[in-house]
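Same chain as my last thread, 371 residues:
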Amino acid sequence: MIEKQLQNILQLGKSHQSKLYIVGGTLRDLILGRQCSDFDFAVRSASTLAKEYAHDTKSALVPLDTTPGRETFRVVTKKNIHFDFSELQGESIETDLSQRDFTINAMAISLQNFIGGSKDFIDPCNGKYDIEKKIIRVLPGPIFLSDPLRMLRAFRFMSKIQFKIENATFNKIKKLGAKINHVATERILSELKILLSSTEASPSIEAMHNSGMLKHIFPDLYKSNKTPRSLKPFNHLEFLASNPKQINLKPLTEIKKALSNRSETIKLGSILYPLIKTSKVNKRTVQKTKIGKILSALHASKADINYIDAITSCANSASNKNLYLPKNKSNQIELYKFVDKHELGLISGLFLSISNLFKFPITNGIGKDLA
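reply #2:
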């Protein structure tokens, strides 16, 4: 099915005398042996080809970048396969690759050779070597200065594909980290949410702290602490989210569903949770809390702001009340009131509260110390 679609795209390119190259993440995933449903093309007349292919296949067309000379359009087929058409940068594919972010994304192969089964990639920056060594290495030149968001993207790749940022790249991020504040906040939030959607985001968050990047994005976390109080609890939360049976809660299926449906939003709430202690609660609007203001500045959706407020409020109430499963009826009434008040963020909020303990119960009844 995909091969037929690629053949059709190849013929479309030939009809416009435009040579297509498969680039970036598609080849990275191929080397890693991952199934690929996203194909990235670098090509002349990218917008024309994308629009025509979307029309011919009755597919959705999504403009990702409409900047003249840098146009990128995504075609989403009915099988939910993505084809991204990006305008070729510079005089050649080698010039285009030299302007990308990391070596692992600076590879290409002509679509015709790819369909023919060739794996002879155009790889001027030794990206294949870095993929095999699981290294994230920035390309030479002012890559971070031209788009500081690429620094945050390094941690996103660390989180999603479990690679290590090599030392020279890490040191560049430490030196230039403050430039992240020149980036539109909605772009920062988008990258953060992709990073946090990984089941193993903790090492990336810790690396962001060590590089200073976390402080540049969330300076309020550092006003009274050199190390944010949310780092260890964040690690605890990821452990619990992956192993909810460790604290012997039921129904397990519903709990897993609640934790996975909005995992990146829950984790963002976990990072900001220490700030709830310094927030001035205003019952009429979430925006008045410190956490709400930070999320609003990042252009988070109202739904996400409300949800994070709900889970952090629930966690804070649970820690203040020191909740236990009650046996007498009067305590049960208090528990029911608590559940009713915190219904929206109940499950995630309770897990957030537990993650802020140094020890919490596991199935054999013995506390597990994750500190």
